[in-house]
Amino acid sequence: MSVLQAELLRTRRSTPAYLLWVGPVVALLSVAGQLLVSRQRSWSSLLMWHVGYVTAFAAVLVALLVAFVERRERRSRGGGTGWRATRPSATRAARLVVLAGLSLVTSLLVFLPYAPAGMLLGFGAAPVGVLASAALLVWAGGLCWLVAATAAARLLGPWPVVGLGVVWQVVGGPCPRSPTHGGSCRRPGRCARCCR
After folding, report:
1. What is the pLDDT of residues 145-166, one digit of tens each?
2. 76: which residues sit within 8 A by CB, 6+ positions away?
3. How large is the angle between the packed helices 88-111 and 58-75, nearest 10 degrees?
4. CA–CA gap between residue 61 and residue 84 (Å, rounded)
5. Is 27 in contact with 114 (CB distance < 8 Å)?
6. Which candidate, 99, 105, 128, 149, has a CA 20 to 30 Å from the CA of 66?
7. Phi and psi (nearest 5°) for 86?
8. What angle do CA 54, 19, 42 make, to 5 degrees?
9. pLDDT of 45-89, one tens digit each?
10. Residues 4 and 98: beta-carbon distance below 8 Å
11. What's the rounded Cα separation, in Å, for the pair 156 and 164?
12. What's the Cα-to-Cα distance from 58 to each of 47, 63, 70, 165, rounded to whole Å?
């Protein structure tokens, strides 16, 4: 438990903690895009604007969180945990828990600001349950990448992981539904190479 408390203390007032505020900015840009581009004024049309975050930015944001934590650890030489009786596996586990928490808060801050925005725009009662479920699904879907990015950052360094995040997002974006995912592709002309 003390390892987790130490990791939380190191994360406080650090760049990953400030990256949480990317969430409301993404939500604001999505609402502005919906207002400027779409003529439909409904919750479903507003929620469609999260596709850009999920398919183009979520993995890159997780990679940035991981990169800044890895950079902090390398600069501080592990914060002194190498000289204390702390198992490296416990330190890594605590770091993963804190990164997963930061990722969850970021995901919630991307989705939940839609509730007051939609209510102010006159869309009616906010589907807070749908927004929270969507945030949890995006977060849960990114946990595998979070673990992989953390391991890659330890091996390659902080900044190549951001490049890997871009690659992860590009490879996963063109064809979200394939026969291996239990469905057929909705864009057969654009991604026939991966959906046969």
Report:
1. 999 999 999 899 888 999 999 9
2. 10
3. 140
4. 32
5. yes
6. 128
7. -120, 125
8. 40
9. 888 888 888 888 888 999 999 998 888 777 666 555 565 667 778
10. yes
11. 10
12. 16, 9, 19, 9
Hey, what are 154's tokens? 């330890």
**Residue that has been written with the tokens 């930061």 in this structure:** 102
Q: Cβ(102)–Cβ(15) under 8 Å?
A: no
d(CA 56, CA 138): 12
Read off the pTM. Answer: 0.79
Separation between Cα atoms, residue 140 and residue 117, nearest integer Å: 25
pLDDT for the residue numbered 51 = 83
What are the phi and psi torsion angles at 186 (to 5°)?
-85, -10
Rg (CA), the chain: 19
Most confident of 159-163, 177-181, 184-188, 189-193: 159-163
Quote the tokens at residue 130: 């749908």
> In the chain, which residue ranges form alpha helices assigned H by DSSP?
2-11, 15-18, 22-37, 43-47, 51-56, 58-75, 88-111, 114-120, 128-156, 158-172
CA–CA distance from 129 to each of 113, 114, 132, 134 (Å)?
A: 13, 12, 5, 8
Is the separation of the CB atoms in 3 and 86 below 8 Å? yes
